[in-house]
Amino acid sequence: MGTAVGLFVAARLAGAAVLATTAWTVDKQPLALLGRSWDSLWYLGIAAHGYGRVQHPGPGVVQSDLAFFPLYPALVRGVTALSPLGGGGAGLLVSWLAAVAAACGIYRCGTLLHGRAVACALVLLWGLLPHSVVLSMAYTEPLLTAFAAWSLYAVLTRHWLWAGALAALAGLSRPNGFAVAAAVVAAAACEAWHQRRQLGRVPPGLWAGAVLAPLGWSAYLLWVGRRTGDLFGGYFRVQAGWGSRFDLGHDALRFTRILLLYKARFVFPMSLVIVAAAVLLYVLLLLDRPPLPLVVYTSVLMLVALGGAGFFECKPRFLLPAFPLLLPPARALVRTARARPWHATVVVGALAGLSFVYGAYLVAIAHAPL
After folding, report:
1. Can you say how many angstroms the Cα of residue 142 is from the centroid of all Cα atoms in its chain?
2. Residue ranges covered by each domain of the chain
């Protein structure tokens, strides 16, 4: 595991160095960009003052901080209370530690499925994604991925209580965190069916894990519903105020048509390419016939990212936790490294260059929501 984590940390440090150089070139402070950009400001506001902030950036647009899930700001608040760090520094510390924990969990899953070499490649590729700069920022994707990876590892090793508890925490991290609960429940249902057929009974721990898994996500949605006066629909009304809704991909297809017919800022066609690559990787993953929990988890994340309306440029970030998509290229990279080491080095170098340069562009230059 040390090699994999070392490669991941080295990749993120190199990306941070490129970002810092770019930021100084355009007279910006890299730590401020990493710790206080876009959604980070909302999370830090919740950590400092609790929920209750609403802004109206345009006619009929109501943006409420209730759209942001509570676990990350709670952790930031805890760090600020126990250390001399301010909000931005605490947010970065939580995210960086979560990113390392996520890399460890991804490595464990990869080792269990395909061995250490593929696991190392899997972690490295995750750290070199075009949007992996987010893993160095005060954002929630590292936290969700950490809980998701370890929950899936617990499912694969049949530790159902741990799987359910970690899935519940994932559900408190981000809106798409329910993908982890879906994976745990689906795997538990399949295992229960097999256990009943073979042994005539189902271990109580299995049911307990399945019940625990969706509690975090469900509890927050009900809390928002109660606060807004619409128990089951309140959270979705809050999301609609941000322009986010699930429309089976209609808005994404409309926006794709606009991108293909008219000129757009570089961020948008790049997002389209990344999403298209994710779809291709998803097909390759299914052809590889991975375990059921990985299929369910990745499928739900893909469905939410592709079927959600609004913030097209953020879709690559929404897919960052979908690390199982990288299993096919990780296996291919290991085969290439064994047969033609120089070719693998060139591939990794190209991916690193794209990740570092594009990440610096996104954060320091693009002025587009991440």
Report:
1. 6
2. 2-364
With 0-12 CB in 10 A as exposed, 13-18 as middle and 19+ as buried, what is 350?
exposed
Q: What is the pLDDT of residues 55-98, one digit of tens each?
A: 887 776 788 999 999 999 999 999 999 999 999 999 999 999 99
What is the rounded CA–CA span in Å between residue 128 and residue 8? 8
- Dmax (CA) of the chain: 68
- Residue 79 tokens read as 């760090």
Q: Which of 86, 107, 82, 83 is nearest to 8 (CA)?
A: 107
pLDDT level of residue 263 (50, 70, 90 thresholds): low
Which residues, including other chains, have CB under 8 Å from residue 131's CB and lie 6 or more apart?
274, 316, 317, 320, 358, 359, 362, 370
Q: Which of 48, 121, 53 is nearest to 335 (CA)?
A: 121
Which has the closest alpha carbon to 127: 153, 87, 151, 99? 99
